[in-house]
Write a structure and sequence with these properties.
The protein has 189 residues and is of the alpha/beta class. Helices cover 33% and strands 31% of the residues. The protein has six helices and nine strands, in the order αββααβαββββαβαβ. It has a seven-stranded mixed β-sheet, sandwiched between helices. It has a two-stranded antiparallel ribbon with strand order 1-2. Helix 1 crosses helix 3. 35% of the residues are buried.
């Protein structure tokens, strides 16, 4: 069960304690898989967390709490970002816009190329983000930051206003925050 404090109420010690305990439990469900998808990579498997309804509710609330009431739509970055963004949109009563890899959408309205360690990639979105629409960007992991920077550029190209960026987990050693700028993270590794 998600623990919410009543609107306008100051966080009590008991409330903070319950939230901290729920987040600690949720984080414990994330598995680290060594050498996947290639040697030397530590893959963060969030599927056990997604399968636990209580943990999922807890992290979704923590993901969107700093932006409560400030966004019209949640834009989720392919692929695991979709899962979190869909749940976040439902929790917030907001719309959902998928940001996809190139070639996956039947009517892309905008695209942005970005650099990877091993080449370039492209993301696309439909024109469902209208001029002036307030957008919360959501992804699962902040690593080097290239994908989130490209997603922000894509939203802005469509006329949206990025009001915040939220990720489930930041891999601090990879330095993505320096590239992305302000980002809200639930967990760090």
């Amino acid at each position: 069960m998600i623990h919410r404090r009543p609107p306008g109420a100051a966080p009590s010690g008991r409330y903070r304690e319950a939230v901290t305990e729920a987040l600690t439990r949720a984080e414990s469900l994330i598995r680290t898989i060594p050498d996947y998808p290639e040697p030397g990579v530590l893959f963060r498997d969030i599927t056990p967390l997604l399968a636990d309804a209580s943990a999922l509710r807890t992290v979704i609330h923590a993901l969107i709490a700093p932006f409560d009431g400030d966004f019209d739509v949640v834009a989720g970055v392919e692929a695991r970002g979709f899962l979190l963004a869909g749940a976040a949109a439902m929790e917030a009563g907001a719309g959902l816009v998928p940001i996809r890899k190139a070639g996956k959408l039947p009517r892309p309205a905008a695209s942005v190329d970005y650099s990877l360690e091993y080449g370039t990639a492209t993301i696309e979105a439909h024109d469902d983000i209208r001029a002036g629409m307030r957008v919360l960007l959501v992804d699962d992991v902040l690593a080097t930051g290239g994908t989130l920077v490209a997603a922000r550029q894509l939203v802005e190209r469509l006329g949206g206003i990025v009001v915040g960026t939220a990720v489930l987990m930041e891999l601090e050693a990879l330095g993505g925050r320096a590239v992305v700028g302000e980002v809200h993270t639930v967990f760090t590794a």
